[in-house]
Amino acid sequence: MNEEQRNIINTIKLLGIDMISNAKSGHPGIVLGAAPIMYTLFANHLKFDPTNPNWINRDRFVLSAGHGSALLYATLYAAGYGIDIEDIAAFRRLNSKTPGHPEYGVTPGVDMTTGPLGQGFASAVGMAMAEKYLSALVSKEIKKQRLIDHFTYVLCGDGDLMEGITYEAASLAGLYGLGKLIVLYDSNNITLDATKQKTVREDIIKRFSSIGWDIDYVRDGENVTAIDKAIARAKRNMNRPTLIEIRTVIGRGSYNEGTNIVHGSPLSKDDVENLRRNMKMDTKPLEVIEEDIDKFRVIINKRLKKKNALWYEYYDEVKKTNTIGIQKLVSFFEEGNISLNFKAENFKIADNYHEELRESNSKIMNIIAERTPFFLGGSADLGSSCKTNLVKESDYSKSNPLGRNIYYGVREHAMAAITSGLALSGLRPFCSTFLIFADYQKPAIRLATLMNIPVTYIYTHDTIAVGEDGPTHEPVEQLLMLRSIPNMIVYRPADINEVIGSWGTIMENKLPSSLVISKSDLPIIKGTDGTKVKLGGYVVGDASACEGVIISSGSELSLAQKVVEDLNIRGKKIRLVSMPSIEIFKNQSKEYQESVLPPNAKIAVIEASHPYSWTSFTALENIAGVDTFGLSGHKDEVLNHFGFTFQTMLEKMLDIFK
Amino acid sequence: MNEEQRNIINTIKLLGIDMISNAKSGHPGIVLGAAPIMYTLFANHLKFDPTNPNWINRDRFVLSAGHGSALLYATLYAAGYGIDIEDIAAFRRLNSKTPGHPEYGVTPGVDMTTGPLGQGFASAVGMAMAEKYLSALVSKEIKKQRLIDHFTYVLCGDGDLMEGITYEAASLAGLYGLGKLIVLYDSNNITLDATKQKTVREDIIKRFSSIGWDIDYVRDGENVTAIDKAIARAKRNMNRPTLIEIRTVIGRGSYNEGTNIVHGSPLSKDDVENLRRNMKMDTKPLEVIEEDIDKFRVIINKRLKKKNALWYEYYDEVKKTNTIGIQKLVSFFEEGNISLNFKAENFKIADNYHEELRESNSKIMNIIAERTPFFLGGSADLGSSCKTNLVKESDYSKSNPLGRNIYYGVREHAMAAITSGLALSGLRPFCSTFLIFADYQKPAIRLATLMNIPVTYIYTHDTIAVGEDGPTHEPVEQLLMLRSIPNMIVYRPADINEVIGSWGTIMENKLPSSLVISKSDLPIIKGTDGTKVKLGGYVVGDASACEGVIISSGSELSLAQKVVEDLNIRGKKIRLVSMPSIEIFKNQSKEYQESVLPPNAKIAVIEASHPYSWTSFTALENIAGVDTFGLSGHKDEVLNHFGFTFQTMLEKMLDIFK
C-alpha cells in the first residue's frame, strides 16, 4: 500500500482501537486485521451515499462478523456517514449511535443488525435475491433499467463459516447463481478459543466450489492492490457468488498478534501506545488527523460523486413517467408502499363455509399475491403441506428471478434469515414450515424482531392434534416461544374470517408476525369477525354474559364455543372471547380491554399449548393447556389423552366456574 | 439380488407399506426405496443382539430420516427384535411400541429419537466420538481390548444433508477422523415438495471430501452386492468417516415411484394391491410369510451368534479382573454408575468468599472431572469465556480420543446434538455457550429432553447484565424457553454454594439439565445452602417472616436480599426465598412447598428475565422481570435502565407489599 493508504488505514485502525479502550470493551483483533479490507471496499468499490444511507440503489454491506463493530463505525465515520467523533467516543454506551454490535436503524450505514454468527451471511443472500427480484421487476417496466443494480457485500470471519446456517444459505446462493453477492472472508485462522486448526480442517475452496461458488484468494491481507483486484474480478463474475478468502493476521501489530488473546478484550495501555508509536501517529486517544480523513473522503467522492448524481438524475426522469407500473414502483421505493388493496371489511364468507384452515389461508395469500408484486416467499420443503404456494406465480430460480415461490429445501434456519434479507430490501416476504420447526429458526427470528422488520412466518400443524407424527412433530412450547420474543406479533386465527383479519392486520402493521394455522378442517365459527382481529381479541356471541370469560384461539375456539353454550344452558353467564393475538390485545386501551374482559369476571383459557402464554389474564390453574410432550396416535386419541374433548373440557370449566 | 434376498426385502417392504395403510398415515417412499439398504446392513454388517438391544458393544444404528419409521420397525421385526405383529399393527397408535417417528426408550433397537432432520446424523457423530473415547478408556486398563469396538451407522436422506446442523457435525467428524462412522445416504433426488434439482445443486462428493470424509457411490440401490461391498470398504477405512451415496428410487414399484407424491402419504389401495401382485406375494395386509422372516433370521444368526457369544465370554472374563479400574468400568457398563463421589454436604465455603460465578463453576467442574472419567465436554468456541475447560485434561482430537475438552468451534447446534450422542452412550457430557446462543441449539435440546437423557448445558452471560455487547447478546426470553421445554431441569444458582448444590443434583438426578451461570462477580450470599438446591427452592435467612415472600435466583438474589433487609427494617415481615430450580421445587411435596411459600403470603419475584417463568407462583404484576429487548451500554447503565437497582427495586416491592 502507498503512504496515503497506510495513513488512512492506520487512522481507521487506531480509531477502532481507541474506541475499544475507551469503552473498556470490544474486539480489537478484527480491527487491526481487517481494516485494509474495509478501506479497499469503501475507497474503491462500495457504491453508497453517506448523505442518503437508505439510498435504494446502494450496495449493501453486511458485517456478518458483528463483533467488528468498532472497525465498522470507524470506517463509516471516516467515510463521512452521519457519525461524529462524539458518537465514536460513546461506543458501547447506553443509547449511543455506536452500540456493541451493529444495530439496524440505530447507525447510518448499518444495513443489518449482526452479532450472532452466520446470520449476516445468510440474510445477505436474501438481500442479493431481493436485488435480482426488484431489478427484474423494474425491468418489466423499463428496458435496460439502471434503477436497481447493486452488489451485496459481506465481511465474515472463520466463525461465520462454521455455522450451519451459513452453509444452508451459501448452498442456496450457489443454486440461485447470485453473482452480485461478494463475500470477503477475513481468514485469520483464529477464533475466540483457539487456533482454527483445533476446530476446522477443511478445504474451503473445494467446499464452496462444490456448492456453486467462485473462490478467490488474497495471500496478504495488507495488500490493498491484491484485495482491490480480487473484488474487481468478483464484480465481473455475474454468474456465481464469490467468496474471497483474504489471509489476515488477527490483532496485527499488537503484542499478541496472531493469537486468540487479541480477539475479544481491549489491548493494554502499553500495547496501544506501542501500536501508535509504530504507526508514527502522534495523536491522543480518539483524536484523528483530519488530513487523513479528508483524503479518504476525497477518494470516495472522486469515485462516486458523478456516478451517483447521474443515478439521481435518472431516477428523477423515471419518476416523471406516468404509467401505473412506474408509479407503483416509485411509491414502493419512496414510501415502502406495496400498493395492496386488502381490507378485511370487504370479505363476506358464508356461514356454512367449511374447509381446512390451511386451504383458507392459501386462498387469502393468493389474493394478496395477485394484488401486489412485493409479496413473495416460500417454504422449507413443506409448501405442499403448509399450502403456501402462490398458485399463479412461477418458481424463483437462477434464470427466473421474478419467481415468487422460493423453494428453500430443508433449510429452515437460512429460510428465516433470507426472509429477513428480503424484508430489509423493502419486500413483504413470508416463509412457511411446521410450527415445531420454528425451533430451527429461533436465532434468525430473534434478529428480525430486534430489527422490527415486516417478515411473516407462517406455521401450520400447530398443536398435539398433529397426532400420528408424534411428539417430535407436536409443538407444545413453540407458541409460547414466539409470544415471548419481544416485538413479535403472533396471530392464531380460528377460521377463515380471522385468517382474513390476520392478513389485513399483518399487511397494515408492517411488523414481524407469526401466523399460526391449524392443520385441521375447521368450520366457520358463529360470531367470529375478521375486522376485529386488529383488536387482538373480542367477544364472540353474547356480550351480556359477563360473570366469567373463556378465552380461546385457533382450532380450540369451536370446542370452547360448545363448552360456553353448555355452560350457558346450565345457567352460568359465561362469555366467549376469541383472542387471535395476545400482543395486539394487550396494546389496546384499558377501556377496550375491560369491555372484553370485565375486571370482576373470572377468566379461563382453552388452548392446546403451553399455558404460560396466557398468564397475563388469569392464574395458571384456570388455563387448560399442554405442558408435557405430545404423543404419537390418532388425532382423536391424542386430543382425548390431553383432555381436549367436549366432556373433559366441560368438566374442567365447570370446576373453574363452580 | 438373489431370490431369497428379494423375498426378504419384499417382505420388509410390504410390511412397511401395510403398516402405513393400516395407520392411514406414514411415509411409503423411503420404505420402498431404502429397504434393500436396510436389508444389507442388518443381514451382512450390523453387529447387534436382538435379545439384548442395549448391548454395550452393539453397532449403533440411527435412522436420521426418522420419517422412515415403518421401514425401521418392519426391519427390526424381521430381524427378531422384541416387536411382534401386534406392535406392527399398532403403528402410529397411542402408546404403541411403534410410534410415528422412532422414539428412544419406546422401541427395542431404536438408538435415538429422530424425525426433525439432521439431528440423527449429528448425534451419531457424538456416538462415534463416545465409542472412540470409551474404547480408549478401556484400553488403558486392558491392552488390545475387544470390549468396546463397534461402528455407528446412519441412514439419512437428501433432507438431512440440507440441514445446517449436518454440515456442522460432518465437519467435526472429518476433523476427528471418525473412521467408524458410516453414513448410508438414501439418495433419491426427491424431497417432500419437489425434485432435489429445485433446491440443491451441489457436488456432494466434493463437498464431503472437502471436510475430511471418504465418499463411496452405489449406482443402483437395489444392488445388494454393491451396497454390501461399499459397506465392507467403509468398515476397512478406519481413518476417515465414510458417506456412501446410494442412488435409490423413492416409492419404487408404486404408481408414483420417483416423485414427491409418494413421499409422505399412504399409497392407494389399488397401488398396494398392484405392488403385492408384482411382488408375487400372496398375503393379506400385515400378513408375513414366516419362511422369509426365518431365512432373514438364519442369515443374521449365522453371522453373529458365534461372534457375539465370544464377546460375552470375553466380557465375563474381564468382569472377573479385580482391579479398581476394571470394576469401575464394569459398574459403568452394567449400571451406568460413573463412580462419582460428590456430595454438596461435604463442601464448606468461607462466608467471605468472593469471585465470578464462572470461576466458582469452573472449580466445581474440575473437581468432578478429577473424580470420574465419564464426565467430559466442551464449548462452541466460548470455553475461555464460559470458563468450562477441564484444566487438567487434554483436548479431544483425532490422535487423542482420551481428550476430555472438546473444541466444537462455532457450532452450537451440532454441539448440542453431539452432546446427546455422548449421553446416549452412557457418558455424562456437558457443553457450554452463552445463554443467548441456546437459541441455536433448540431443536437438539428438545430431542434430548424428549429422550430424557443426562446432558448438561452450561450457559453463562445470562441476563441483560452482559451490558456492552448489547441486545444481540443479552438473553431475555431464553430462560423461559428452557424452562418451558418439558423434562428440562433448569438451575440458576446464586453463588458458589448453590453451584455446588446444582452439580450435586445434576449428577444424581441424571436428567437433562441447564446450568445457567452469571457472568458477574458475586459474593457468597448470607444464608444460601448448597444442600437445599435439591429441593429447588428454600428460605434464605429468617423463616419467621411470612407475610410476604420475595423469590429470586442467580445474580439477582443479592439485590433481593438487600431489598428484603430494608423491607424488614421498615417493619414488613417479608422473607427471602432462593429458587435455583423452579422445576425441582414444583416437584416437592405440597407440605414442603407451603413451608417455603406460605399459602396466604403475597409473593413477589425478582429476576432479570422474562416474567412468564414465575407465573406458577404469583401474578405477572408481582414479578420484576424483563420482557423487552436489552440495550448496549455499561452493565450498570443497562441494569439501571431496566430497574434492577436497589432503589428502584425497593420502590417496586414497597408498592407490591403496600
Descriptive account of the structure:
The structure is a homodimer of 658-residue chains. By secondary structure, chain A is α/β, with parallel strands linked by helices. Chain A has three domains: 3-305, Thiamin diphosphate (ThDP)-binding fold, Pyr/PP domains (Rossmann fold); 344-523, Rossmann fold, CATH 3.40.50; 535-656, 3-Layer(aba) Sandwich (Rossmann fold), CATH 3.40.50. Helix content of chain A is 42%, strand content 12%. The first copy, chain A, has 23 helices and 18 strands. Chain A has a six-stranded parallel β-sheet with strand order 8-7-9-10-12-11, with helices on both faces. The termini of chain A are far apart. Chains A and B meet through helix 6, helix 7, helix 8, helix 14 and helix 16 of A and helix 6, helix 7, helix 8, helix 14 and helix 16 of B.
Task: Using the 3D structure, state the CATH architecture of the largest domain in chain A.
Answer: 3-Layer(aba) Sandwich
Mean pLDDT of chain A: 96
Class per helix and strand makeup of chain A:
alpha/beta
User: What count of domains describes the coordinates of chain A?
Assistant: 3
CATH superfamily of the largest domain in chain A: Thiamin diphosphate (ThDP)-binding fold, Pyr/PP domains
Could you give the distance between the termini of chain A? 83 Å
Major sheet size, sense and barrel closure of chain A: 6 strands, parallel
* Strand order in the sheet with the most strands of chain A: 8-7-9-10-12-11
Rounded to the nearest angstrom, the radius of gyration of chain A is 27 Å
